[in-house]
Specification:
5-stranded mixed sheet; 5 strands
Length: 111
Amino acid sequence: MAGSAGAMSSRAPSSPFCEVVGAAKLPPEVGGADGLCAAVRAAVGPHLSVGKAHVTVRVLSPSLLSATIRTANGTMLSEQKFAVSDARLTPASVGRFARSIADRLGEASRG
């Protein structure tokens, strides 16, 4: 599994664009920090150039994520949260979370 295995504050920088904190809490089927960041890049890629945007995803539990997003111009967007109430995160649920991040970045780029 990609990502860091350690303390809650462990960081797994998957790329300059995406960083995951607490990747060890991700269910294995998600693919670790690399899988999560790949989903975000895939969701964002078709819609806009990320430039110097940065996403920090915090894995709060195997079913709860939060993300802070800094746009290419340095604006911090409101925190995005995502929870699965009846199970653990799956690749499909991570994809939905990634699309919500892409939508938020798209809204910010349009003003």
